[in-house]
Structures are given as C-alpha cells and as structure tokens.
Write a structure and sequence with these properties.
The chain has 60 residues and is mainly α. It contains two helices and no strands. It has one domain. Helix 1 packs antiparallel against helix 2.
Length: 60
C-alpha cells in the first residue's frame, strides 16, 4: 500500500510538473517529458522510502 500511495502522489506531481515545464518555463514537449520523468522517479522513491521508515520506526 505504501507504494500505491506514493505512486498516486507522484503521478499527480507528474502532470503538474510536465505542464509547468512546458507552459511556464517554455521547454519543448520532449524536454518537459525528460525533466518531468527525472523528478517523477526521484519523488516516487523519496516518498516510498520515507513512508516505509516512518511505518517501521513509528511502531517502536
């Protein structure tokens, strides 16, 4: 369930990030997709690890 929650959060961020890099920052569609994919991977991994750590050490 941790991964599903982290993935849902990251997918929403994916859409927002892609739109921002495309329309606000003025990158091309390909550049926007590349930048967004990188941050998507980082965001998903960070959220999953943090959530797992909080669950593991929060039960102590």
């Amino acid at each position: 369930m941790d991964a599903l929650e982290a993935l849902s959060n990251a997918v929403i961020g994916l859409v927002v990030s892609w739109a921002a890099t495309l329309f606000v920052l003025g990158y091309t569609a390909t550049q926007s997709a590349t930048i967004t994919a990188m941050f998507f991977g980082l965001s998903f991994t960070r959220a999953w690890i943090l959530r797992a750590l909080f669950r593991r050490y929060g039960r102590g």
